[in-house]
Amino acid sequence: MNTIHKTTIKSIVVSILSLWTVLSCTKDFEEINTNPNSPVTVQPSLLLRQVIYDYGEQMSYEGFTAGNLLGQYSTALDFNLFDRHNLKSPQLGGNPWPIFYKNLRDNEIILELVKENETYTVYEGPALILKAYMTAGLTDLFGDVPYSEAFKGAKGSVTPKYDSQESIYLDEGGILDNLDKGILAIQNYDGSIALEGDILFNGDLQAWVRFANSLKIKALMRISDKIDVASDLQSIFDSGIYIQENSQNAIFNFTDGEPNNFRLARLRVGDFNNYVLSETMFEIMTNLNDPRIATLFRPFANSADGEFNGLINGIDASQTSISPADYSLTGTIFRENTARLDANFMTSMETQFLLAEAALKGLITTDSKSLYELGVTQSFDYWGTDLPADYLVTSGAYDSSGTNALVQIITQKWIANMINGYEGWIEYRRTGFPQLKAISASLNNNIIPVRMPYPAEEEALNNVNYTNAARATNDNSINVKVWWDVN
């Protein structure tokens, strides 16, 4: 944990008053009515800092609450309509749509500023990479979304059309294209102006290139059942220019105290104690004899011997009496000791597991076992837990027979990504692993959802385009697969 530079993040409030001066009728009127002490454009350094922090802070909370319920890391004891898979009724999380669109809009302003002022060229590459990163998160959750006509503010349509997920991934200006253009922009930058406001890499442009290539590996694996990605993956792997160790992770650190500690630490204790260890995660980690369970969760209060206990997801809280003392609460790193916790954008461990899967499937030529073991080792290190000397030869030993190896790779990646719960659910949808359980009192006909629903505000504010998108998803059903999902 916290292997990258320590960054103290001050509370950020960016107020964008105007991006362009309003032209007046006469020169004298303009001179008289212009405040020389009030900037007419926001600085890209402030926007970059704002986008990274706001997105990372909010999606860490979303991942812990709603994402961890969908991925069955944790279970909600109350306020749990979402845990019962009524995803149109978010409670204590479960509405990431405005987080994506707010930050994609602010990131687009950076790109517009780059076009208008060549002194801001250093921001182009990172902004394109962030656009690709956030866009992938958005479409992986929802499927087809407003994209090509979105994020434009006053200069664009207030009712943008929905683009297909296939085009968002593959077309010019899409995810893969923006990653390539972001890398090229950094490689072509020969200016002397430093990248400021960068709370991920402290202005290290080569770290952004590694980040982009790890994101390319992730994107290519996500769509690998739809198109041939082998040559692209092999090229990145052979280059070695991707996140390879924890010191290179795309993260920023939370603090122990306000205002920059993990959000759950700032909520009332009842809200925090609403989340307990899920039965799914309890069984997986117990079967692995995995000591990370003591980092991610606490022994349940009524335990006599420091034991752990999990609860099945999706209970009917109105009909079931549950005592929090009988189930394991989440670990102290999520409340008392949040300085040990990161806002996690992309890590080496996730990259190693993706490459291990690629090697297993013959998409790259290398040893899958060594990549798997490296991912596991880095995961233990990331979570600040000692790796038992025999773990990789006993319960965590790699088994290359049949589908066992794929189950192991995805399961270990699922455990490692607990702070990014949505990722665990997305990868379950893509691969079918780890096998999630039928929930206790489903409000979705005992079906595990395979996409997030478009929010109600889209129906109100973008009705014509929403109606078309809803029609394509069986009335905005959470059971209609996204384009890349062939599982």
TrEMBL record:
**InterPro entries cross-referenced by the UniProt entry:** SusD-like_2, TPR-like_helical_dom_sf
The molecule here is called Starch-binding associating with outer membrane
- What organism is this sequence from? Cellulophaga tyrosinoxydans
